Amino acid sequence: MEDRIARLEEQIAHLTRTVEDLSDIAREQGDQLARLINRMRQLVEREAEREVADGAQIPLADQRPPHW
Q1: What is the rounded distance in angstroms from the CA atom of residue 9 to the CA atom of residue 49?
Q2: DSSP one-letter string for 5-68
Q3: How far apart are CA 40 and CA 21, in angstroms?
């Protein structure tokens, strides 16, 4: 009986560690995604400003594709 309890406790410890590792990975990916979204937003805004400065009437980012 004690042997079985020890095995179960060991499995719980491994599972707990795995959950903590996955949680850390998910948080890191969430942070990275937030940074990438922010960077993409900056790039889109910069390109829209460049298009306006080049004389385009409507920034390409706001235009509908020709197939619509």
Answers
A1: 60
A2: HHHHHHHHHHHHHHHHHHHHHHHHHHHHHHHHHHHHHHHHHHHHHHHHHTT-SS-GGGSPPTT-
A3: 28
Structure tokens given for 43: 């790039």
> Do 52 and 59 contact (CB within 8 A), yes or no?
yes
At 10-66, the pLDDT tens digits run: 999 999 999 999 999 999 999 999 999 999 999 999 988 888 888 766 655 566 667
CA 64 from centroid of its chain's CA atoms: 27
User: What is the pTM (predicted TM-score) of this model?
Assistant: 0.63
59 contacts: CB under 8 Å, gap ≥ 6 = 47, 48, 51, 52
Tokens describing residue 60:
């390409």
